[in-house]
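Forum > Structural Biology > Help requests

Title: Can anyone predict the 3D structure of Aldo/keto reductase?

Hi all, first post here. I have the sequence for Aldo/keto reductase but no way to get a structure on my laptop. I'd be grateful if someone could post the structure tokens.
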Amino acid sequence: MNIHLQSTTKLHNGVDMPWLGLGVFKVEEGSELVDAVKSAIKHGYRSIDTAAIYGNESGVGQGIREAVAENNLSRKDLFITSKVWNSDQGYEETLAAFETSLSKLGLDYLDLYLIHWPVAGKYKKTWRALEKLYTEGRVKAIGVSNFHVHHLQDILEDAKIKPMVDQVEFHPYLAQKELLSFTKEHGIQMEAWSPLMQGELLNQPVLKGIADKHGKSVAQVILRWDLQKGVVTIPKSTKEHRIIENASLFDFALTDAEMEQIDALNQDKRVGPDPDNFDF
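Reply #1:
Sure, ran it for you. Structure tokens for Aldo/keto reductase below:
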């Protein structure tokens, strides 16, 4: 993959989505958040991923506005994602939640809106609301998050519009092989949350060995693995030097043998809840 920080993948509806973005999970409202968003955009990131439940859409919006002004960009240069939370699922509820997110972010459209979790009995109604927002041009792309293959099959049964993205927990200990091949087969772009397993993989010996060979950090090796697997990735950081380091993935490539070594680390091990078994 001969790509750079602003390279994009084309979603099945023709929309360009950056391969790399900044995630802001668990970053509270305040100057640290605003600075992280500004810093990412200043250093060339064009994609920011938030969610209603993170409680930080206002700060993300502020960071976006300041960064756009300071870096001579326009709104259309950026790719902004948010997600509808479980308690807001349902048809009318989702339409209302979307307006709330948009107003907190201070934006007049989103690039990507996702169903955060597959809430049983609700996610199909929620999907109908997303289809409406999409058809009306309020959002450029729609998708899901934390959907297993069977959830996707269920949505596809009667969806008018096929999800463009499935954002899931994905890292070397949870390689999601079946899901990855299903999404590729159906033209759904997979996206990784928690790509670094919340830091748990940073001392993993195999990854350390590969990192040393390339003169890179373990984080960079994992994120590069994501990209070479064809998975969009959104590492979370608030520290400027980490934000820069996480984006320094484009001056090296993993060999086929190294990719296989990393694939072999899979343990189907999660740091987050299982989408078949969550209670929130």
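The mean pLDDT is 96. The chain has one domain: 15-263.
Shout if anything looks off.
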